[in-house]
Amino acid sequence: MDRDDLADFLRRRREALQPEDVGLPAGRRRRTSGLRREEVAALAHMSTDFYARIEQRRGSRPSEQTIGAIARALRLTQDERDHLLGLAGYTPPPRGFRTEHVSPALMRVLDRLDTPAQVVSDLGVTLQQNALGAALMGEHTHHTGLDRSVFYRWFTNDPIERALFPEEDHPIHSRSYTAALRAVHGRTTGDREADELIGALLRQSPEFAALWDRHEVAIRTDTRKRIQHPAVGLMTLDCQILTAENQLERLVVFTASPGTEDAERLALLSVIGAQTFTRV
C-alpha cells in the first residue's frame, strides 16, 4: 500500500469535483474548491473519520470493497479506479496483456480501412500502421529501445514528434501522455517495461516529472487532433481509439468531417502517400 500517493490521489480527485457533479446542492459559498471530506464519506457510506484517516495517511488499510465505494463516490473512471486499487495494494481486474503481435481482429479491421490508422500499445509503442497511417504520422515501427514509445520520444523532445502538432497544442498532448502513463502505472505492480519507461522519463524530462506530480489519470478514447503535416498542411482530424479483446492494444483511426478543407487535405495525402513524407 502506497499511503502517500493514495492520499494525494484522493485529495486531488476530491478537490476536482463540485457538488453538482455528484448530485449535491452547491449550498453556501465555499472557502475552498471541490467536495468536502464529509461529503465524499457520505457518498461512500462510511464515517467521515475513517475517510479522513485515509487522506491523512493514517489508519488501517482500506478493504477492496471500501476502495470500490470511494471510487464510485468520486466518480472515477475505470482507469482511475484501477489506479486507486493499485495504490491500496490490490491487483486490479485484468483487462489485457502486452504483446508485440497485433490481434487478428484488429489486423482485419486495419487492413480494410481507407483512412489513416495504426495499432498502438498501452505504452505508446506503434505495433502496426497502414500506409495512410505512416503517411500521416510518419513511420513509427522502425524505432528500437525506449524510442519505440511515443511518450519517450515526446518528452525527450524528439523534433519529429514535436513538429507533428502545432506548438500551442503541446501542453495538451503532454498532459494526455502523462495521464495515460499514470493509468498504466497504477494498473498493476511489477510492470518492468512501464517502470523502466517512467523511470527514464522522470530522470530525463523535467516537464514529465512536473506533470507526473499532478497525479492525473486518464486514457482518452476519442478526441480531435490538429496535425501539422509537412506536405498538405494543418488538418483537424477526429481521432477514435478502439480496442478488441486485448485492451492493451488500441486501434487509432483518423478521419475528417466530410466536405471540409480537412477532408480535402486528407484525400490529397492519400494520393501523395508516404513518398513525400519527410521532416527536418
From TrEMBL:
Residues 34-81 form the HTH cro/C1-type domain. It comes from the Bacteria. Pfam families: HTH_31 (PF13560), MLTR_LBD (PF17765). InterPro entries: Cro/C1-type_HTH (IPR001387), Lambda_DNA-bd_dom_sf (IPR010982), MLTR_LBD (IPR041413). One of its GO terms (molecular function) is DNA binding. Signal peptide: none annotated. This is Helix-turn-helix transcriptional regulator.
